[in-house]
């Protein structure tokens, strides 16, 4: 078959399957078949670069990192809706419409999705721009990120208008949210309070590859354009679905206020079963001509209103505040409560987040507190019933010293959390570091679960991560509930872990803020542990995804004698302390020993590609110009400060053409 035709057919087929899977939720082929087709298309496109098409299903994740988002004006302002929590006000709204319209009218009831709003522009059926709400007039251009959302078609189908704008909500499904938070908890990264924050945080990520991992979803609830096929909102939504957009299946056209009330009370309960978060119901007059008669107030259309569900809350007694110390030493206050029923579960504990929040609530032991579980999985305390305070218990104040080891707590600038700085001998930190070290994504040592680690720790057999390789079979076998077989298994697994590649060893070390992806980026940029220990601040922040905070944390880690000792021991035991040769494969040594700074924007390759070329040819990427810089690879619009500094220091500047010639 003609390869161009084959590519074309595969693209169409894959788009159809994407639609079936992400919009209709009814896949017609297996994931495996889908992946096979996708791989085939990727291969054919690679072999035939002249067939490049930005709307191909292979092109959802671009490679370039954005420094910031471009601000763009909305074609039509993004308005908000009048809100109410009262059914009475919904009836009043309906009455006003009835009086103004003086004739039959329909109201469309929809779920109010609780995510972050987005506007999607399609020109000639192609997604050209995705803009956040911003201030309603201007928003951020987040097109590259939105392209990673599988339920947003890159191309429309059928008989779509030439130019059309869709408004909708970007959401993080509950299941994705729970998994993400679980992972963040394990990594001791701050948790997202609810799927809304997670969705808006994700869509503002500078790296589309990270956005793609977040598995966002998008529902369309409003369509704007000059030549829409119907004046009825409900019908336009149907068309939108036919063109490939994802719309809600729970839209209902109502003809009386009673029907609306039924819809509200039904969804107040049923919404808990939905895969995404909702916080109310939106009511819209169906016919656009009637919408125009009703018009607008200064802020919002009169033809629509949002009814918001009550966030569920309960009142209960605060018995005690305990403080948990995590793997990185972060101290989290936890409120211990009289058990209380809330949104179908019994709540006994709630997060108090940090010292500032405790202070702001003016908490005392014995207080009656309000607990809420709005969109959040972790219930939180939202207030104190001061009227119910007749016996004043002790004021809750954040401890000055670590509740586990007694060392004075510290608070880093700009951070809300308190930390115990005693990384090497604070028991929960020691145990946490070992748990992290042996975990699946790190060294993957089996048989060492939380309880076994605690037991070994208690018996003085484990103090730090290097001790793991010193464990002896007889010692292990003697432990309660372990036995000889398990002991051998642990030892075997320890042996096998010596083959774990360097990037995972680096992650396993548990350097604060160095997560899985960061570890990988560092390993690819700086190929072995010794160079990393010696690396300068400059060298570190030049690595993709490494900023000031991470660079400082790495330097701090390697400045501590205990940590260096541990690394020496790990090296002796045979762990991988450098990247495998075939992963580094320098193409040449042309840039050996050269320190290079990249600045400006480029047209022939992306910045990341240039960074990679420098590394592959033996050079070093640095973030800022100094006397040690050998040359600057400058694109367009090079920063003025850099330019002046370069001139002052007499640093050579070359353009991309010259650079590429140099590598020839
Ligand atoms: S209609 C003029 N419909 O709620 C029509 N909005 O203030 C404007 N939202 O942040 C919006 N679900 O992002 C509409 N089914 C729905 C909605 C919805 C969620 C959000 C929207 C905006 C807020 C309205």
Describe the structure.
The protein is of the alpha+beta class. The protein folds into six domains: 3-59, Helix hairpin bin (Helix Hairpins, Orthogonal Bundle), CATH 1.10.287.610; 83-308, 2-Layer Sandwich (D-amino Acid Aminotransferase, Chain A, domain 1); 313-388, Nucleic acid-binding proteins (OB fold (Dihydrolipoamide Acetyltransferase, E2P)); 427-499, DNA polymerase, domain 1 (Orthogonal Bundle), CATH 1.10.150; 502-583, Orthogonal Bundle (DNA polymerase, domain 1); 595-663, Rossmann fold (3-Layer(aba) Sandwich), CATH 3.40.50.10190. It is built from 25 helices and 21 strands. 2-(butylsulfanyl)adenosine (IVH) is lined by residues 79-81, 110, 112-113, 117, 169, 221-222, 282, 301, 304, 306.
């Amino acid at each position: 078959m003609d390869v161009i035709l084959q590519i074309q057919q595969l693209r169409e087929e894959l788009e159809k399957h994407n639609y079936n899977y992400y919009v209709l939720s009814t896949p017609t082929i297996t994931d495996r078949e889908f992946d096979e087709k996708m791989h085939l298309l990727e291969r054919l496109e690679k072999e035939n670069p002249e067939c490049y098409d930005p709307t191909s299903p292979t092109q959802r994740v671009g490679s370039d990192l954005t420094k910031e988002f471009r601000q763009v004006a909305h074609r039509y302002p993004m308005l908000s809706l009048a809100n109410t929590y009262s059914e009475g006000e919904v009836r009043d709204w309906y009455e006003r419409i009835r009086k103004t319209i003086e004739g039959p009218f329909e109201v469309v009831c929809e779920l109010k999705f609780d995510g972050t709003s987005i506007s999607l522009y399609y020109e000639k059926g192609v997604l050209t721009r995705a803009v956040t709400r911003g201030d309603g007039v201007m928003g951020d251009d987040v097109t590259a990120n939105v392209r990673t959302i599988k339920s947003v078609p890159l191309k429309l189908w059928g008989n779509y208008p030439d130019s059309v704008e869709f408004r909708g909500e970007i959401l993080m499904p509950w299941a994705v949210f729970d998994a993400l938070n679980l992972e963040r908890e394990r990594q001791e990264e701050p948790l997202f309070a609810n799927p809304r924050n997670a969705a808006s945080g994700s869509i503002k990520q500078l790296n589309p590859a990270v956005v793609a991992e977040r598995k966002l979803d998008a529902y369309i609830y409003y369509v704007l354009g000059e030549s829409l096929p119907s004046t009825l909102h409900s019908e336009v939504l149907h068309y939108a679905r036919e063109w490939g957009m994802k719309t809600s299946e729970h839209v209902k056209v109502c003809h009386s206020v009673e029907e609306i009330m039924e819809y509200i009370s039904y969804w107040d309960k049923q919404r808990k079963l939905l895969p995404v978060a909702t916080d109310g119901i939106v009511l819209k007059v169906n016919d656009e001509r009637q919408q125009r008669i009703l018009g607008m107030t200064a802020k919002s259309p009169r033809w629509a209103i949002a009814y918001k569900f009550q966030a569920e809350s309960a009142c209960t007694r605060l018995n005690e505040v305990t403080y948990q110390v995590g793997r990185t030493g972060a101290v989290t206050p936890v409120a211990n409560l009289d058990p209380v029923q809330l949104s179908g579960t019994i709540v006994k504990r709630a997060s108090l987040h940090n010292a500032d929040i405790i202070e702001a609530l003016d908490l005392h032991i014995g207080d009656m507190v309000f607990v809420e579980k709005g969109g959040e999985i972790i219930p939180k305390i939202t207030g104190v019933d001061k009227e119910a305070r007749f016996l004043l218990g002790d004021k809750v104040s954040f401890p000055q010293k670590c509740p586990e080891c007694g060392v004075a707590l510290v608070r880093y600038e700009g951070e809300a959390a308190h930390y115990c700085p005693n990384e090497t001998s604070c028991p929960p930190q020691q145990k946490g570091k070992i748990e992290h070290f042996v975990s699946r994504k790190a060294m993957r040592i089996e048989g060492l679960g939380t309880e076994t680690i605690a037991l070994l720790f208690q018996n003085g057999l484990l103090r730090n991560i290097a001790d793991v390789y010193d464990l002896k079979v007889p010692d292990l076998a003697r432990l309660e509930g372990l036995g000889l077989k398990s002991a051998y298994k642990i030892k075997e697994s320890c042996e096998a872990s010596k083959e774990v590649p360097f990037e995972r060893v680096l992650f396993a070390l548990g350097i604060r803020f160095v997560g899985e992806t960061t570890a990988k980026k560092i390993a690819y940029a700086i190929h072995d542990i010794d160079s990393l220990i010696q690396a300068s601040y400059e060298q570190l922040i030049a690595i993709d995804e490494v900023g000031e905070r991470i660079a400082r944390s790495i330097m701090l880690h390697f400045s501590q004698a205990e940590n260096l000792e541990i690394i020496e021991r790990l090296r002796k035991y045979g762990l991988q302390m450098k990247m495998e040769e075939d992963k580094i494969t320098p193409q040449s040594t042309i840039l050996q020993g050269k320190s290079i700074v990249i600045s400006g924007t480029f047209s022939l390759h992306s910045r990341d590609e240039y960074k990679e070329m420098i590394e592959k040819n033996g050079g070093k990427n640095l973030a800022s110009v100094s006397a040690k810089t050998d040359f600057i690879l400058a694109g367009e619009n090079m920063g003025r400060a850099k330019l002046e500094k370069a001139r002052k220091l007499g640093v050579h500047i070359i353009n991309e053409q010259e650079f590429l010639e140099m590598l020839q």
